[in-house]
């Protein structure tokens, strides 16, 4: 009706098959009366599925102005249940959409049942990775939409990325995002969608991943510290893990501090990063965090930008990692940690 052509720059691949759209909504678990945020509704296929499922309120975030007229059309038919936000999802704080709505279905607290809320999106491939990191960070601080409880996320990714997110230990797909996603949530590939279901057809198949936030994260160190440890330790995937770990430090102290970490964690320096469990990344992050608190300037140190020394970085305002006070404490024994998640060395 609106003669809209997909824009490659916005990674637009639409799902025109309503059965697939409904399947995404079903796996997300939307029930009548639930509140939903949809990222990148485009022409509105999943949007229709969410409204059909009886969502009590639906807020969509779409960057492309060409979709605003068809979405407005849908909103008019949805009888005050649907709200359109013409915005960039990377800049939009989705928790703000509902913060002034006292009737929102929030949980009593983080440990109670998840609230009747969902975040759903057939994401553009080009923003999927930065967006999931932003959402995992907010989830770890229980801020934004996660201030309302353990809101589940149901998002699409290139199948290869979906497999990395959910990868078990010792698999080739194990990477930084596996640890980041699994320590704070329980990601699962709900189902796969063949590239042929999309218009235009992408070169890859797609995985629909559902992330359920954990009651208690497997690592109790600020997100930014875990992120940095994972990034550096996975830096040399095929080599001994100590090689990546050492890149956290300036050369002259790298050997001593990296060995201090591994001695305390009882990790074999010759193992590879894919063979480390989430809990072992937690042990490494905890000791690295302590080292950073003892040595201002170490946390912002970046081995690719050696111009600034730790001593120089220590004089800056961001010389220390984020404080633990901002970070919610683990309230319960760690859940969902399986034996296979421990290192094979
Ligand atoms: C892969 S298409 C999916 C469209 C629709 N949900 C579907 O499944 O058919 C991705 C959608 O996200 C939108 N988009 C791209 N970048 C965005 C951003 N930064 N913020 C919000 N929407 C974005 C695109 O315009 C497009 O509508």
Automatic annotation (TrEMBL):
Residues 20-215 form the Ribosomal RNA adenine methylase transferase N-terminal domain. S-adenosyl-L-methionine binds at residues 13, 15, 40, 62, 88, 122. The keyword RNA-binding applies. Its main location: mitochondrion. It holds the Pfam family RrnaAD. Its EC number is 2.1.1.-. GO terms for cellular component: mitochondrial matrix. GO terms for biological process: transcription initiation at mitochondrial promoter. Keywords: Methyltransferase, Mitochondrion, RNA-binding, rRNA processing, S-adenosyl-L-methionine, Transcription, Transcription regulation, Transferase, Transit peptide. It is found in: Mitochondrion. It is an enzyme of class 2 (transferase). The keyword rRNA processing applies. GO terms for molecular function: mitochondrial transcription factor activity; RNA binding; rRNA (adenine-N6,N6-)-dimethyltransferase activity. Belongs to the class I-like SAM-binding methyltransferase superfamily. rRNA adenine N(6)-methyltransferase family. NCBIfam families: ksgA. This is rRNA adenine N(6)-methyltransferase.
